[in-house]
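Morning!

This is the sequence you dropped in the shared folder:
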Amino acid sequence: GEKCRSFIDLAPASEKGVLWLSVVSEVLYIMLLVVGFSLMCLELFHSSSVIDGLKLNAFAAVFTVLSGLLGMVAHMMYTQVFQVTVSLGPEDWRPHSWDYGWSFCLAWGSFTCCMAASVTTLNSYTKTVIEFRHKRKIFEQGFREEQNFLDQEAIKYFRERTEEERAEAGDLRLQCLHSCSPN
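The structure's back. Tokens below.
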């Protein structure tokens, strides 16, 4: 003798838009999680260089952050609709007592894991990029100094070499002039 009713039919008309928005947000949440996971797998199996791997990791972290935020907003919207339905819904459906249950705890756990993973990944990416830039800057400075030193040494060497060749050429001319003179 029990009637099976859908929660969508029980929700007040003013809350049906929020309910559908929460359902769409949940679907987007799952899709963003899948995209983030796919990027992490792509980085794991097909990264050609360290920088490419870090970039894929950073994009995965961004998608995970968006996913976590969207999932938490969707769960809060659904909870709001549930509370309004409990307050304004049909008398025969209203639960006498209720609590948030496992799905609410799972939502908070999921949100916490998403945020922790993405913040850690973005922090690691930023730290590595800054280290690479610093090492590259030091390398370029050292290379420029070494190049300047080599250039000065090369200029000095060629200058001395040219002076020696001119001196030898001048000596040869003098010898030639002395040997060719009629005296």
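Headline: The helical segments are 7-10, 16-46, 50-88, 101-180.

More detail when I'm at my desk.
O.
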